[in-house]
Write a structure and sequence with these properties.
Length: 316
């Protein structure tokens, strides 16, 4: 029986004195901040008198609360799905049964649907017997060094870090497969006339989750190879990335309750390096501006306290 290389994700050689920035934070820097209040106001103006709308006669605050509740519920179910996947991939029949008991699996149609989506995908992935599970929910680090944008001659060293959802290996093709599960909604591929572009080095791509999901997976691909998590000699071509949509219901286009998606754009290691530089510079400058702001606020406080003490002395 072929022995499969087991990557070491202990990260014992990571220097904990070096600052880190998560790939999730980097993805957030690629889009303009979401103005929740402005969008809610537009929604209110458009839907307040529409009896067929889910926002009919809702105030702006009620619309925002509805969004927040919906987001919290989606995250809760996403977390339960992660736990289910973990029990299927690394647990036992006993731990899986306990999960189902604790989460009311038999009577929660939404949870049942999400888990069915994963089960059907997993059966097809491993149907031939060539693809085997390697690991899941592991954090990886990519070390980056760039010139300090505010101090010429100095350098900044950061770790970009992220945790992949699952790693598989195909014994026949000799390919590693990095998977990102998505259960929160559809994979947006087609822009509308209102769709903006991403920022910085990604500005030629639209601000759609298909592109940001791909970018996240490319971080894992590059890190697994460049930082030596995979066997020596592994190339980028040996690592396949896959977005797997698990909506918990039938997808009209495919007729299945799961969807698999390849990368939105070609892998480019130079683009990834520019992305890291862009993000670290942006993070460093923003933190420097915040420190300056705090210093200015601190300078004002002693003067105010001194005036108060003088007034008290005059009173007594």
């Amino acid at each position: 029986m072929e022995e499969i290389f087991k990557p070491d994700f202990s990260n014992i050689n990571i220097d904990k004195t070096i600052p880190t920035i998560s790939i999730s934070a980097i993805l957030g820097m690629l889009e303009k901040p979401f103005d929740k209040m402005a969008i809610a106001q537009k929604t209110f103006n458009k839907h307040f008198n529409n009896e067929k709308s889910e926002y009919y006669h809702m105030t702006v605050d009620q619309i925002i609360e509805k969004w927040e509740n919906k987001g919290a519920e989606s995250r809760r179910y996403g977390s339960m799905l992660d736990d289910y996947i973990g029990n299927v991939l690394k647990g036992t029949e006993a731990t899986l049964r306990l999960f189902k008991l604790d989460n009311n699996y038999e009577f929660d149609d939404r949870l049942h649907g999400l888990c069915d989506s994963f089960d059907n995908f997993y059966k097809i992935l491993c149907k031939s017997g060539d693809t085997i599970f390697v690991d899941r929910e592991r954090t990886v680090y990519y070390k980056v060094e760039i010139p300090n944008p505010l101090n010429e001659g100095e350098k900044l060293t950061y770790y970009v870090k992220g945790r992949f959802d699952a790693l598989f290996y195909n014994k026949r093709t000799k390919k590693w497969i990095v998977i990102d599960w998505k259960s929160s909604g559809s994979i947006d591929k087609v822009p509308t006339k209102w769709t903006e572009r991403l920022l910085g080095p990604m500005s030629k791509y639209y601000a759609l989750n298909y592109y940001t999901y791909t970018t996240q997976l490319y971080f894992y691909k590059k890190t697994l190879v460049d930082e030596g998590y995979l066997p020596e000699g592994t190339s980028y071509d040996d690592v396949v990335v896959m977005i797997v949509n698990l909506p918990g219901k039938i997808i009209e286009e495919s007729g299945t309750n799961f969807g698999t998606h390849q990368a939105a754009y070609p892998f480019d290691t130079d683009l990834m390096d520019r992305l890291y530089k862009f993000s670290i510079e942006k993070d460093y400058i923003n933190k420097s501006l915040e420190k300056e702001k705090q210093k200015e606020e601190y300078k004002e406080e002693p003067t105010q306290n001194k005036e108060e003490s003088i007034n008290l002395e005059n009173i007594f």
